[in-house]
Design brief:
By secondary structure, the chain is of the alpha+beta class. 34% of the residues lie in helices and 10% in strands. The chain has helices spanning 3-8, 41-44, 56-67, 74-82, 88-91, 132-143, 150-162, 177-180, 199-205, and strands at 16-20, 34-36, 106-110, 120-121, 130-131, 172-174. A four-stranded mixed beta sheet has the order 1-3-6-2. Strands 4-5 form a two-stranded antiparallel sheet.
Length: 206
């Protein structure tokens, strides 16, 4: 699925909020600005970062065994296997690939950085077993007396999950500056959300 393709199809003035509580979910909407989280270049500077990937030859061999085709083009195999459900990056010419119409249409709250794993939490007072990020977001919203912005929500979740001794993860926010300051799951008006801000929020944002 190409989320940028769906974001580009939104009606005028509409936004799409995605909560992605899955491994490597940072940056799921292509070309959305980073508001909370590490910039992409930071991963190359992290000596502990090792990308997880299959060698091209192994991947191609697996696809060929399924399609029966003898082609070095992975896209040919994917279109053969998935037909109309194949990614448009393979089914359309490069000049027709989706590009962002506006920077303010997509809002992605990811459970971790692009190079991190997410974890699950057991059932507790905050609800049934589920993704740690999802449960943390629910707990923050339930315990917050007033509306909370996308940025404030992700910063608080990042502080909670990033400080864990076991399986820490660092949620991220990808959207425009306008939508970073918009109330979570509400439309942005006049650039910033009209809500109260505590001294704790300012410290977290710094």
């Amino acid at each position: 699925m190409d989320f940028r393709h769906y974001v580009n199809r939104l009606p005028k003035d509409a936004t799409l909020t995605i909560i992605a509580d899955s491994c490597y979910s940072g940056g799921l909407i292509d070309q959305e600005p980073v508001q909370v989280g590490l910039l992409p270049r930071s991963y190359n500077e992290d000596n502990n970062y090792k990308p997880r990937k299959l060698p091209y030859e192994v991947y191609l061999e697996q696809l060929s065994s399924k399609t029966g085709l003898n082609s070095p083009d992975i896209g040919v195999h994917l279109v053969q296997l998935f037909d109309l459900e194949a990614s448009i990056l393979f089914s359309l010419p490069p000049d027709q690939h989706p590009k962002p119409l506006k920077a303010d249409q997509g809002i992605l709250l990811s459970g971790c950085e692009p190079n991190e794993l997410t974890s699950d939490d057991p059932a507790d007072k905050n609800g049934p077993a589920g993704g740690a990020f999802t449960k943390t977001v629910a707990a923050i919203i339930n315990g917050h007396p007033a509306p909370i912005t996308n940025k404030q929500l992700v910063i608080r979740a990042r502080r909670i999950l990033g400080s864990r001794k076991y399986h820490p993860q660092h949620p991220c926010l990808y959207c425009s500056s306008k939508n970073a300051d918009a109330v979570f799951l509400r439309k942005a008006f006049r650039g910033r959300a009209e809500i109260g801000e505590t001294s704790e929020d300012r410290v977290l944002e710094d």
